[in-house]
Design a protein that fits this description.
Elements: H1 9-28, H2 38-43, H3 48-67, H4 71-97, H5 111-118, H6 136-155, H7 159-187, H8 193-202, H9 204-224, H10 230-250, H11 254-273, H12 278-281, H13 284-291, H14 293-307, H15 312-317, H16 323-367
Length: 378
């Protein structure tokens, strides 16, 4: 790989499908009583967040091992990649929604909410995790993962160690979920039980298994790339496609679906990385959507804010058939989101990414130890 790390089509595609899922579930929230099974599948679009995390961890492992330019350079690139758009989203949604009670801030927005959000520390309290930027919990979890990533990359050096860590993380997350609710009942007495459940599910310790799946896939690709037969890869790909369709119809258990989907995304990434199913899932449109997916994550909430209430009384509540309104709203949100995201990607994201690379390269050079060579005395 080059110093800038070539873009991998299947990873962009994974991000593209992840943002599709996220947009679908949020559009469905504006269409009550959506028909079965569309309502079941739409709700599971929320698993796009875990797909983002799997793709993120896999990408960072590829970059970390290809660049090998140190922790300082890594953190600089991550800040320049994530911070600019997120910091712009803060005033945008403060302007759209105001300072009143909303989201995870039932008592309204205050300066502690703003400061902790801007510092990416909002993911450690139920009243701040998504208080300002809709879906801000995902960004908080992502930045927390960046903070611990060098330690994970240095510790998990084989697929066996990554698999062991994944198993432990799943067990810990299952045990920690109810404990977190009880703990924050005392730390945040104003928060209701639904808010505490949402927080316990959304914060970093619960989401860690998704990142570990991405790390595991990286090591499996190093160990078994080119080893498995094409038939086995195609079978794995077929199963990976079938699971998201079938599983929501079998069980509604959040814990079961979280584990199954997360592991399934790992299988999907592994198969796509080796070419299985790439003709089916990897194309120019979905890759482009994956490229602008970070901007799209922020803009689709604004698009829904503008378009969601339109026509709801005529085609939503009062209509016996809801899916046409869902499809129309989805198309409108996608159109607005893609246009705005394309602009901010080219004008904000891409320039900041390039600047971050330059600053990181300078930091990497300064932190490297250069030992002068001496000629033996004549």
């Amino acid at each position: 790989m080059s110093a800038d790390i070539e873009r991998l089509g299947y990873i962009d595609a994974l991000r593209g499908y992840a943002i599709v899922g996220v947009i679908v579930v949020h559009v469905a929230q504006y269409v009550p009583d959506l028909e079965w099974p569309l309502d079941v599948w739409a709700v599971e679009g929320a698993r796009g967040v875990q797909l983002f995390f799997v793709a993120s961890a896999l990408t960072l492992m590829l970059s970390w091992h290809a660049r090998a330019d140190g922790i300082a350079a890594f953190y600089i690139r991550r800040v320049f990649r994530i911070a600019p758009m997120f910091w712009l989203a803060i005033p945008l949604y403060l302007a759209l929604y105001g300072l009143g009670p909303r989201g995870s801030a039932p008592q309204g927005i205050s300066w502690p909410h703003i400061v902790t959000t801007a510092a990416f520390l909002h993911g450690f309290h139920p009243e701040t995790i998504s208080s300002i930027v809709p879906g801000g919990s995902t960004i908080a979890v992502e930045m927390t993962f960046y903070a611990v990533f060098p330690l994970l990359a240095a510790s998990l050096r084989s697929w066996q160690s990554a698999a062991l860590a994944l198993g432990l993380a799943i067990c810990v997350a299952g045990l920690l979920y109810p404990a977190t609710i009880e703990i924050f009942h005392h730390l945040a007495p104003r928060a209701d039980n639904d808010l505490l459940k949402a927080f316990s599910y959304s914060w970093f310790p619960t989401q860690l298994p998704a990142f570990l799946v991405g790390i595991l896939v990286f090591h499996l690709l190093r160990e078994f790339r080119g080893v498995l037969a094409r038939g086995a890869l195609r079978s794995g790909f077929a199963v990976a496609l079938a699971v998201p369709i079938v599983m929501p119809l079998i069980t509604g258990s959040m814990k079961i679906l979280f584990v199954v989907y997360t592991l399934d995304f790992g299988v999907l990434a592994f198969c796509l990385a080796q070419g299985a199913g790439s003709r089916v899932l990897v194309n120019a449109c979905i890759r482009y959507l994956g490229t602008i997916s970070y901007s799209a994550y922020f803009w689709h909430f604004a698009a829904l804010w503008a378009l969601g209430p339109l026509g709801l009384d005529q085609f939503g509540h009062d209509s016996a058939v809801k899916w046409p309104y869902f499809v129309a709203l989805l198309a409108g949100v996608f159109a607005v989101t893609v246009v705005l995201s394309s602009i901010t990607y080219r004008c904000i994201e891409a320039p900041m990414i390039r600047l971050g690379r330059k600053v990181a390269a300078t930091a990497a050079v300064k932190s490297s130890v250069i030992r002068p060579s001496y000629r033996p005395a004549e």
